[in-house]
Structures
1.
Amino acid sequence: MTFTEKHYKILTILADGDFHSGTELSSALNISRAAIWKYLHSFADSGLEIIALSGKGYKLDRAIELLSDSQIKAELNQQTSALLSTLEIHSQIESTNSYLVECAKSESSLGRVCFAESQTGGRGRRGRQWVSPFGANIYLSLLWQFENGFSAISGLSLAVGVAVVRALSDMGVKNIGLKWPNDIFWQDKKLGGILIEVSGESGGDCSAVIGLGLNLYLPEKETSTITQPWTDLERIIGTHNYSRNQLASLLLNHLLPIVASFENDTFAAYLQEWRSYDCMQGKAVAIYIGQQQFDGVVAGIDDNGMLLLENKQGEIKTFASGEVSFRQS
């Protein structure tokens, strides 16, 4: 479905999870009750479930916390506020990353941030779909300009992973792991992913769009296309122990300073911390590069953030990229 302003206004009323009468909704939107019913009926295509009860009205099957520009900005520290140039929140968008990639073609921007309540074409690595139900998770992208080309931001996705772990730790989430090169894990299950898309000159100015998808609540009915073990924040810490807006602020408080200083600091500033979160060390994995498969045991990462794999012959091979899957020893 396509979200309109009226769809979003209805959801701002229903977000509390309580019953609201058709008369109340009709009055708030200044449209007929029949029109309200049509809008509510259309939500079925978005993954949102509306409960209707005679004499009480309508409610969402669960309360949702809509993202708020003012609430997010209110929790930003002084440094982050200075680095943030633009904050956008879309009720629906194809992809936060795709949107900022297009923006990067026509502007040089530092600190442009885009959140979305839902994505119709959310993307993970290698073009995979990123499941993006409305009002449930974090879909975030950041556009930043770098001066010294692609090589100067080598290891950026690993440093972004460190920022995410720091933000989750601030919320009291423990035992978060990082899976090379860009996944957020908890107890061998995927909690989130990072997707960085770079454009520009290899030795000059380049733009990076840094995308983050983080699972806060994934309805079971939305997960049929997910092909690997997954989890979400509710399964880890419970239903009422986090705020989407607070987490959005914490992510920006950690993410923006790291991105802004990365060309000077380089990945070396985050190497040891990343290693402390490494959930692949000593694990048997398969690495896929195109049609080739490499099996071995992960021996950590080198000082440049490349993956080290020990094969059966005891040889250490180095990988700058690749698709990594855990396997049985």
2.
Amino acid sequence: MKVSDFDFHLPEELIAQTPLAERSASRLMVMDAKNNEVKHDVFTNIADYFQPGDTLLLNDTKVMPARLIGEKVDTKASIEVLLLKQQENDCWETLVKPAKRVKVGTVIEFGDGRLKAECIEVGDMGIRIMKFLYEGIFYEVLDALGEMPLPPYITEKLDDKDRYQTVFGKEVGSAAASTAGLHFTLDLLDEIRAKGVNVVFMTLHIGLGTFRPVKVEDVKDHEMHAEFYQVSKETADILNQTHANGKRIITCGTSATRTLETIIRDHGTFVESEGWTDIFIYPGFEYKAIDGMITNFHLPKSTLIMMISALAGKEFIMEAYQEAIRERYRFFSFGDATLILK
């Protein structure tokens, strides 16, 4: 299976550059794979597609203002540092540009020296391990100096950085938003609960995989970057009871989906757990944890479009995407939503 099998042409003007004024006002394409049907709706009506006893799983990760622009202490050259994964002793795995300027011992300062970072290890493809030096509380300093790490296809400035956060996010640690969750409001979640639907949470901190294109020709040769997840006993118990009752589990976002499929793969049932997942889902994979997924429209040749193709079938997904292009849906992080039912 070739990566090129998942390519399609997307007119540039369909890439959403800014979020809508109202979170839930986006359009919603419902993809019913079982009946091979596509329906057009608006996200405000998402509750109509849930039934009493179903469970909606949300990822409550919160995005760090993880993009830092600083300069080398010795040459004053401008350097961008993207925080990816926290390690011990104020050390972070980061993605650095331009990486060739940052070697072991390089010191970068941000905010006139309020924050400094020294490179202590050099990795592949722009990865650097940086040790940070600061006074006070790290996340307060980061909040003052950092920017939201918007994807490279978004070229317009985000006026309100809270619009790159979900309304339910609380666990700080992601380098990118769980963008499927950006469509929800608290009122809309209450409406879903009022239908007798369980609304539960887990955490997966979204990291490097979001920023890495697939560079191999054969899909099977791609390696996913590991991301940290946590699922509570309360959430696991509700998920198990949902399926025991013959009801559906619908995840919000590919991150929540990958987490549940990892747990089922490793344990055979939903259990309280935490760890790292590098599961790569593409056609041929058999979904065992979920019955449907809310997600946005994804990049051509990305691991995410491979993932939804495994859920609903590649031909069906590609045809639905072509219909979305004809109907002028908005694509990617600030774009419209899909509900995919297997």
